[in-house]
Amino acid sequence: MAVEGRERVRGLEAGAQELSGQLGKTIQRLRKAYNLSLSELAEQSGVAKSIISQIERNETNPTLATIWRLSQALDVSIERVLQSTSDDPFIEKSSRGDTPILVSDDGRMRLAIIGWIKTVEWLQWFDISAEPGAVLESEAHQRGSIECLSVRAGEFEVEVAGSLQRARAGETLRYRCDRPHTVRCIGDVSGEATMVCILKAAVME
Q1: Coil/strand/helix, residue 188
Q2: What is the spatial distance between Cα 40 and Cα 44, in angstroms, rounded to a whole number?
Q3: Residue 152 has what pLDDT?
Q4: pTM over 0.85
């Protein structure tokens, strides 16, 4: 019985370690998807920067309250944050409430993060809905990064380093996003688009 008990404890410890490691990776991916620094996530969640750093490096086992604060700050369900890769189904479904949303500074453009959080460090994609006149200003991404904006409805305009191009429904704009860039919804109607961002892509000469 004593041996069986020790084996069970070791099994529980291994499971807890695996869950903790996955939690850290998930928190880091979501933080990067929102382009948040450790300090910014700490401010929004109320969790100390040092604790978040330890969680991401799998150096601590956070309390449920800490996990809840982080999930609220990252706009995802706590179930999503705690999901373990070893039990992931081949087909994964995300609900509307479990999809993180980014909002432009003017509050008129919404970007639903529909990409897989496990690829967010190199591949991101978003479902965009915009009111007429909405403006999304973005800082430069890593050198060589490229964005693709496929318009489904309305008309959008993209400006990169003084270059300007427009696209209507059925058209796609591809552009380097490793410099400050701006996306605008122009015209008198709302716009819809899909944006894909390939980070650290081969540099276009």
Answers
A1: coil
A2: 6
A3: 98
A4: no
pLDDT, residue 20, reads 53
What is the reported pLDDT for 23?
A: 82
The radius of gyration of the chain's CA atoms, rounded to the nearest angstrom, is 20
Where do the structural domains in the chain lie, given as residue ranges?
A: 2-87, 99-198
Q: Exposed (0-12), middle (13-18) or buried (19+): which is 16, by Cβ within 10 Å?
A: exposed
Torsion angle of alpha carbons 70, 75, 35, 190, nearest 10°?
A: -170
Query: The domain 99-198: what is its CATH number?
Result: 2.60.120.10
Structure tokens at 188: 């008198």
d(CA 63, CA 88): 23
User: Any idea which residue has 């700050």 for tokens?
Assistant: 73
* Number of helices and strands in the chain (H, E): 5, 10
3.30.70.120, 2.60.40.10, 1.10.260.40, 1.10.10.60: CATH of 2-87: 1.10.260.40
The reply to whether domains 2-87 and 99-198 share a CATH topology is no
pLDDT along the chain (205 residues), means of 10: 47 48 80 84 92 88 85 77 58 76 94 81 90 95 91 97 95 94 96 92 45
Determine the pLDDT at residue 11. 45
Helices 49-56 and 2-33: crossing angle in degrees, nearest 10, is 110
